[in-house]
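Notebook entry, structure prediction.
Reason for the run: the old model in the group folder had no record of what sequence produced it. Starting over properly, with the input documented here first.
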Amino acid sequence: MLDFLTGRKNGDRAAAADQDAAPPPRPTIGLALGGGAARGFAHIGVIRTLVSKGLAPDVIAGTSIGAVAGGCYAASHLDAFEQWGRSLTARNILSYLDINLSGSGLIWGRRLAERLDATLGNLAIDDLPLRFAAIATEIGTGHEIWLTRGRLVDALRASYALPGIFSPVRIGGRWLVDGTLVNPVPVAAARALGARLVIAVNLNADLFGRGMTIASHGSDAEDERLDAQTRQQRGLGGLRGLFGAEQFLKRQHFGRPGRPGISTVMIEAFNVMQDRIARSRLAGDPADVMINPQLGRIGLFEFHRAEEAIALGAEAAERALEPLVKAIAALASA
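New structure, fully documented this time:
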């Protein structure tokens, strides 16, 4: 790989003998890691593949789950993040849902924060061995906030604080939520931090058939049946059950067959917006190389499918190696 980047071939005696001609320096590589909830474990496969090929990033800008994966790598704790992901099951994911009925999000997020605290401690972004930014959004102003200093755990929590799901995080006098509201795949941030070549990872690139226009639509008999069923369930004490057990709330959180839960509605609405914003921003400021893992079959809440997502990320990175190597070689010789 490195021979290819320098333009030398194995056994090239003339190149080997030329001690004075140093190979051109490798351009500064930046990774822009996008948001995508459970699909974000694919970032692990991407990072590991790039590092194994001698293409470790010098700069990382991440949004939401991309910030978590990138921050853990920058802090040399990607192994712990991967082990945690692979340990998740459909059942034990529920243990991280500490339901919140009185705050500004459905989930406190304390258990996830404690997990990050146990792994990263009080490590500051300023002390990381590479340049790093976690992208967040300020409530009220809509400002895009690049968290480039201060406690790493706090920055990651702010970057993945989905509005309505997790409570906002206060950092430096600002209340912050998920960065995908303003910058789902932060190419611009990676460039601003000094990357000459930016590799972007879009976790939602293969969600085909989204964003179309349905020109004619209306109600039907199925709507009436579902409405009647809902009224019946309310009459059987659905409201009383809503304030009963935390376990019941967790089931409501994910929904039931035929009807989406609260979090699914929020996440899917968020996903539609994220897709539209990502397309617009990537069109205006495209990455030098795009990595698009085929993750459409993995649901946003299917965190128990980490192993599959990691493998798909690695496959996508392998497919991108040829254009990536060509781009690096062109920049190195420019």
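Summary: The radius of gyration is 22 Å.
The old model has been moved to the deprecated folder.
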